[in-house]
Amino acid sequence: MLPTILLVNKIKLIHEIVTTAEFSIYMGFIENISTGKISNNAFKKAILLFILIIIGYAFFTLLFINNSNVFEGISNYLLPIISAVTLIMVFYAVKRSKTYGKSYYHAWLFLLIAQAFWVMGDISWSIWDFKLADASFLTYDYVCFGLRIVFMCMSLNAMPKPHTDILNWYRRMVEIGMVLVTLTMFFWSFLILPFIGLDQIDSVDLMVIGLNIMLIFALMFFSIYLLVSYAGNLKKGPIPYIIASVAFQVLAAITFAYGYILGLYSIVGMENLFWIAACLCIALASLVQIRCHPPEVLKDLSIEYWRFKIPFETNVALLLGGVAYILLIWAYFSFEGVFEILLFGGGLLVGLALIRAAISSKEVRKSYAKLEESKRTYQCILNTINDAVYVINPEIKFLEVNQGALDMYGYSRQEILGKSLDMLSAPGKNDMTEVVNAGYLALDGETQTFEFWGMRKTGEIFPKEIKINKGTYFGQNVVVAVARDITHRKEYEKTLKKSLAEKEVMVQEVHHRVKNNMQVISSLLRLQSMYLDDEKVKNALQESQNRVQSMAMIHEKLYQSRDLSSVDLGGYLRQIMRYLLDNYKMEFHQIKTVIHAEKAEIDVKTASPLGLIVNELITNSLKYAFPDGKGEIILNVCLVGDYYHLTVADNGIGLPDDFQLDRTETLGLQIVNRLVGQIDGVIELGEGKGTEFIIKFPLTIKKRKR
């Protein structure tokens, strides 16, 4: 009596521990599940937890398999609890699926109904196993089992699948039929036939078992179809967990059947382990569905990403035929009664293989027709391009040309294809080594553009511009070249160059004549001043002469330079300095000049007023800064940012204390102020001994209103 009491207490303790642990484990996720906020870390913990449950139940089976009271008591409580909590997870997955569309919602709704029948089946089995009802109550378990499979098949069928054409769908159905035929042959040999051979099995059990086997085959059909549809994208979404659950359910059914046939009670623990694994896979699928965002689920199922990416379709007939052949050989040498059935199955498999071959042949013809149509479309597009287009392989052979290339050279397609590039090259006009190197650079991904001299079929030589890029031609890396006849462009360039040369000569002549005319004016002013006695008038004429001469120097610089639009600022300023020193008859050893000028080319619009400014400022220094005839004049030009700084300074007597630059009444400085405004500059007075003017003007002068 005492051992029995201890055993009962032990069972109650284990039962309390297991149920409490399971409940606390699952309830930790319920709050996050209800909100749909399941992190990656939480999901990984869930997977680890489910694995631990399976391992724990496996150890439990090994420990108590020989103690039926403990084993059945714990199992009959544990399985309904697991399936019930899984039902809760599926419920929240159904709620989450409302935002994904009707297809996902209906699929998960059917799965919820299937899981509800799973719970009812586990409960009815536990009631019968606890002897709380007679054997007739077990019928409810069989009914729940069958309805569970029916609604799970409906769920798998309702899952959204990639769009496929009708031929591909037919071929896929035939392939799935071949799989089912092979599985039927296998199950008939090792499962169904042994059931039929049992003397103690009655007709009702046989009918129920046969019906369940048919339902299992239906479930396998829909799961295989779903697997084939989603192959290549099984790393995302709940589909792999659902398919894994189906696989565990099939293993559980097979284990149950063999345990029933062989009368092995110990195999029931393995069956329950498969049922638990199948249920936990549904729970994991629910967690994935809850935590997924709609954009991750609602992808375009027609895109190439979803296509079948494992080498199964092309080898399925060979693989299944080999399995059937092995079964036939085994049946022939083992059981004579089995051989006829398997022979029929083998014939059916051959018939399905022939149907599949016919469908595949039609697909090949259809694909070939699409390929030809694609090729014609591609050739039509190429021929609409007026420029010549070539496809050249790494061996510098023509693989394809368009009509523009044929018109450009006058050859037929057959005459060009397969020939070398040398065929179209003008002899002695091109460096073919450089052309080949450009082709290799293009194959490395660098676009190349160059000119090439071609020769037509008639022998006419003409220039063309070629642009080459890397391309792909039926899986082969090639160079795609686009060429344009530039004969007219070359003629235009030649005409333009000739015209430009003529205009340069004309502009040089204009500058020369302007310079000569200004020198004539300067000479006339000089001659006029020689016959005058009034010193003020003579000084005025001399200053006017200097201004005219500074402008004449610009035109002299322009017609002497290659660039007719700009002058060297440093050289121009030095020439003005020398002219003024010579004109005022200053000795170079008495007046020291220091000129620092950066290399700068300025346009005529800037050079002309700038020369006049320097002329006026240096003239003032020469006339008023050195009463004793000795001193130093500094001329400095430098670039500071976007502005030139021109400094004209001397170490003479300086300006009066009350001098104001903006209110000066002298003509020369008034001219300076106006000219500084013309070049968008500013003028400042420096501090210190002597006189220092600083003119700042931009690199480019703004367009002035006339």
Biggest β-sheet, characterized?
Answer: 5 strands, antiparallel
Beta strand count: 12
Structural class: alpha+beta
Number of domains: 3
Oligomeric organization of the protein chains: single chain
Radius of gyration: 50 Å
Across the major sheet, the strand order is 2-1-5-4-3
Could you tell me the strand content as a percent range? 5-15%
Question: What general form does the structure show?
Answer: elongated
Structural description of this entry:
- There is one protein chain.
- The chain is of the alpha+beta class and 706 residues long.
- The chain folds into 3 domains: 2-163 and 203-301; 385-485, PAS domain (Beta-Lactamase), CATH 3.30.450; 565-706, Heat Shock Protein 90, CATH 3.30.565.
- 65% of the residues lie in helices and 12% in strands.
- It has 20 helices and 12 strands.
- The chain has a 5-stranded antiparallel β-sheet with strand order 2-1-5-4-3, with helices on both faces. A 5-stranded mixed β-sheet has the order 7-9-10-12-11.
- Helix 7 (203-230) packs antiparallel against helix 8 (239-262) and helix 17 packs antiparallel against helix 18.
- Mean pLDDT is 74; it is low at 1-31, 294-313 and 701-706.
